[in-house]
């Protein structure tokens, strides 16, 4: 069994104006990508996005589609945006599968 996990963080500073001063709120966006091989009852690829530790979306190989996890996101973004994110998920899925195959070859594991 080989499991490859990658974590990426992106910090976003969003201006928020008050009546007198301007302050900045720090929001943290994180994406977690998990790719696996030969793990029973677990998808080969899963991507999950969080903003400020709240899950915003999910993608896995079984659905091959990004799924918004918050009602306000479902209302705010259109189908075109969901399709773009889904396409990005499929690209990540293929890239991670290639990484796993490379790791299997380098560590002389064909599976199991």
Automatic annotation (TrEMBL):
It comes from the Eukaryota. Keywords: Glycoprotein. One of its GO terms (cellular component) is external side of plasma membrane. GO terms for biological process: immune response. The keyword Glycoprotein applies. Residues 27-110 form the MHC class I-like antigen recognition-like domain. InterPro entries: MHC_class-I_related, MHC_I-like_Ag-recog, MHC_I-like_Ag-recog_sf, MHC_I/II-like_Ag-recog. The keyword S-adenosyl-L-methionine does not apply. PANTHER family: MHC CLASS I ANTIGEN TRANSCRIPT VARIANT 1-RELATED, MHC CLASS I-RELATED. This is MHC class I-like antigen recognition-like domain-containing protein. It comes from Gouania willdenowi.
């Amino acid at each position: 069994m080989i499991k490859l996990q990658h974590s990426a963080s992106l910090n976003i500073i969003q201006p928020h104006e008050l009546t007198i001063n301007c302050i900045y709120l720090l929001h943290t966006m994180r994406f977690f990508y998990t790719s696996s091989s030969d793990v029973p009852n677990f998808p080969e690829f899963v991507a999950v996005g969080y903003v400020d530790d709240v899950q915003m979306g999910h993608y896995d190989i079984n659905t091959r589609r990004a799924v918004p996890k918050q009602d306000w996101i479902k209302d705010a973004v259109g189908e075109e945006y969901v399709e773009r994110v889904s396409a990005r998920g499929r690209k990540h899925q293929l890239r991670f599968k290639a990484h796993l195959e490379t790791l299997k070859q380098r560590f002389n594991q064909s599976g199991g």
